[in-house]
Amino acid sequence: MNEQSTQNGPANKSMKIQIWIMLLMVGGVMLAGTLMVPTTEEQRQRMIELFGTTNQGNLITPAIDISSALEQHAATSMKWKVLIAGGESCDEHCQKVILETRQIHILLGKLTRRAERVYLADPEQLDQQELDDLSLAHPFLTVQQTGLEQFGELLAATSMVWDMSDTRYFVVTPDNDVILYYTQDQEVTGLLEDLKHLLKYSPDRH
Question: 35, 107, 137, 168: least surrounded by Cβ within 10 Å?
Answer without folding.
Answer: 35
